[in-house]
Design brief:
The chain is of the alpha+beta class. It folds into two domains: about 5-155, Sandwich (Jelly Rolls); about 165-270, Homeodomain-like (Arc Repressor Mutant, subunit A). The protein is about 45% helix and about 20% strand. The chain is built from eleven helices and nine strands. It has helices at about 90-100, 120-130, 135-155, 160-165, 170-185, 190-200, 200-215, 215-235, 240-245, 250-260, 265-270; strands spanning about 5-10, 15-25, 30, 35-50, 55-60, 60-65, 70-75, 80-90, 115. Strands 1, 2, 3, 4, 5, 6, 7, 8 and 9 form a nine-stranded antiparallel β-sheet that branches. A hairpin with a 2-residue loop joins β4 and β5 (about 55-60). α6 (about 190-200) crosses α7 and α8 (about 215-235) runs antiparallel to α9 (about 240-245). It is globular, with a radius of gyration of 19 Å. The protein starts with a strand and ends with a helix. Residues about 160-165 have low confidence and may be disordered.
Length: about 280
């Protein structure tokens, strides 16, 4: 049985990261990214749940996750899977589209987490190899533009039905809670605090947030703290400092959740970029 391994690359000045990995035993905890995440499965197959449905990405298939799309993931069989993933900040995606259109176009949404499209797979693979392989900045930009324009043209559409079907009141409550958590991810917020802020019951708040964002408020708060830790690590803080400043009990607590949500340790993430 092949050992789990991973390689990670991140840009020092833009919201652009790439991961290349093989997992047999690793199981992703339910998480999301603030970026668009596009991947291609190279070998084997991986199974995951996204937007309330089970999906499988086999060799050659493309994965497309919107920002804040909750998902988990694990190998679909005992042989494991190998995949490439590129995380692209929303501002980079809309920047490419606005530049091509000569006007503001708005953020695209992808309704299907798995797409069978050999042309998209080829483009993503080329971009990923350029990012991890040390291609010039110009080449990276050219491939990024090509991939974004291609995947939006071939796979993006209007918002997913699950969010469109959510009541306006539930969306309002969820957005209030999300804003509160994003304003201060380190605050020791309670369910009663959120209920008082929104004027709704604790259960109503929980149900509304979960229906709109696909996870409980506590999971979202932990994700915000993980993102804070990533930023601190990228700035050169020690892992212990990053853990403390991001609101984790200690470095091992941070490491446990970092691995569960991102597939690599904080130390591996630190080593992936310039410090």
């Amino acid at each position: 049985m092949a050992q789990d391994w991973s390689r990670y690359w991140r840009s020092p000045d833009r919201s652009l990261e790439a991961m290349y990995a093989h997992f047999t035993r690793h199981v992703y905890h339910r998480h999301s990214h603030e970026t668009y995440s596009f991947g291609v499965t190279e070998e084997g197959s991986q199974a995951f749940i996204c937007r309330g449905a089970a999906h499988t990405s086999a060799a050659g298939m493309v994965m497309a996750f919107n920002p804040d799309d909750p998902h988990d993931g694990h190998s679909a069989d005992a042989l494991g899977f190998t995949y490439r993933m590129v995380h692209i900040g929303p501002e980079l995606v809309t920047g490419v589209l606005d530049d091509m259109a000569g006007r503001e176009t708005g953020a695209p949404l992808f309704p299907r987490p798995v797409v069978r499209d050999p042309a998209l797979a080829t483009g993503l693979r080329a971009l990923h190899k350029a990012l991890l392989g040390g291609a010039s900045a110009l080449r990276r930009d050219e491939l990024l533009t090509a991939v974004v324009s291609s995947i939006v043209r071939r796979a993006a559409t209007r918002p997913v039905r699950a969010r469109e079907a959510t009541s306006a009141d539930a969306r309002h409550v969820a957005e209030q809670v999300r804003s509160r958590l994003r304003d201060d991810p380190l605050a020791d917020v309670t369910a009663d605090d959120l209920a008082a802020m929104t004027g709704r019951s604790r259960f109503t708040v929980y149900r509304a947030f979960r229906s709109v964002y696909g996870m409980p408020p506590s999971d979202y708060q932990r994700l915000l703290r993980l993102r804070t830790a990533r930023e601190l690590i990228a700035q050169g803080r020690s892992l212990g400092e990053a853990a403390a400043e991001a609101g984790f009990a200690d470095q091992s607590h941070l490491t446990r959740w970092f691995v569960r949500c991102y597939g690599i340790s904080p130390g591996e993430y630190r080593a992936a970029g310039p410090l």
